[in-house]
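Final paragraph of the annual report: two paired records, presented back to back.
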Amino acid sequence: MRHAEFRHHRLVQVYDAECRWGPDDDFFQAVVDETPAARVLDLGCGTGRLTVALAAAGHTVTGVDPAGASLAAARAKPCGERVTWIEGTSALLPQRAFDVAVLTSHVAQFFVDDAEWARTLADLARALGPGGRLVFDARDPADRRWERWNPVDSHRVVRLPAGGEVRAWTTVTGVRDSVVDFTHHYHFDDGAEILSSASLRFRTEAELRESLTTAGFLVDRVYGGWHGEPVGHGDGEFVVLARMGRLAPVF
């Protein structure tokens, strides 16, 4: 199954157990908190780790994701009732409804096709008000993170809150231009095995800047890590902060 960690009920539990709060969440929350009582969009919110935290901090938050199993887990979290959850894509976003939009956990890389990425940025530009901010992360291709996605370097044991363990690892199945195809392997202690395949696009900083400019955004800065490091001297990331530089056309 493609993207099974977001769509399969057993893997959603594994994802939640493995992906705890980290410095990336601290960064995104700090940026959002710069706008008091902000109207926030979390696009690709997954199981809502950051989404519910932003709602608890007093923001008006909308979480959007196409995976129903992930949204079900998000709704069940404390403060989940304070969030407006939408099952779908950026095409459903209302106009001029948000002050800040975030795409976390490398969601931006799931838009492999340039036309799909351009449509998503256009949707975000339409949904943000004048001066609205867009914040997202993407891995720096120069870091070549995919070379560590192998059964040895990526092997880990995930302990589930309800009991039991899951052995997991990742294998790369293809590298073509700037797209990496891979499969996550999950082995449960009851003998079940579930595979999840996906593809990610590794865009350069120049490509990201160009796509944002085309969509009407101004890029304020690009960091290389979660503590404001320069590109190439941080965590192998592009941490992008942009804002609407002009009103996007409304169709």
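The closing record of the year follows.
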Amino acid sequence: MKLTNHNLEAVLAALPDPVFLITESGRYAGVYGGSDPSYYHDGSHLVGLSMFDVLPRYAAESFLEQIRMCLERRCMITFEYDLGGRDVKGLDDSSGPKDAIHFEGQVSPFEGLVDGEKAVIWVARNITKRYRLEEQLRRISETDPLTGIYNRRRFIAEITERLEEFTRYQEAASIIMLDLDNFKQLNDTLGHQAGDNMLCKVAHACRKVLRNVDLFARFGGEEFIVLLPHTELEVATVIAERLRQTVEHLEPLNANVSPVTTSVGVGCLLMHDSVDSAISRVDDALYRAKRAGRNRVEVQSVADTLANGVSEKTI
């Protein structure tokens, strides 16, 4: 059976997700479907308007770039973006979702011209629930369940990225590694629950010393590690000493045990580093601190530093 124009309009209106017919200049030529107010806002007022009339300029330019890419490649483009009712001028945001929606956009070339222009069919799917679940699972996979800070997995991923940036742009980055002194004695004297409480206490106190851009992680057992982006070795050494003092001044869990202290190793990324070599060098510095009497800061070796063009003044 061939659909009449009236029937075709009814089919399009019944589509669960909003579908836009948009010209290559960014004008909305048609808006169909997406009528469930729990998932979408009513965008029917957009017809005849340009993206630049109703969207923030950065969003309009980004969307227009996707349209041009789709038309140039002559294939469907899929990408994700956030957009809330308040971001669209003239939209009645009281009848749709209150928060911003995370969309999956599927943009396909339209066969034929619309008012003399090439055009695309843009299907916008609300994937907010899926996106939030994925974000939650990602956070869980990257977080130490005891202390609530990042875990070893997240640290390795981050330092890998920083190494790539360092190789390309030579942007400084440093690493601090901390290991609690005589932690086994605390566990043996007060029990593992007390040890866990102290780990949480140390993590919370150290987090306050660090900047928001610093990545602080539990590396394993009683060992913590910090990645400091855009930080020279000299500055990192000062921060390491602050961390050491912070741990040293924590109130003991029990009068029967000595205050917890930490041995600290510091290093910076060097040319031709790998993840293993960068961490190993800082780990070596930490164990020099252990051998030198604990509760102190040691910096990566002078030989390694000078061989890679870092000034001796930073050591």
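The first strand starts at residue 19 and ends at 23. This concludes the annual technical report; the extension proposal builds directly on these records.
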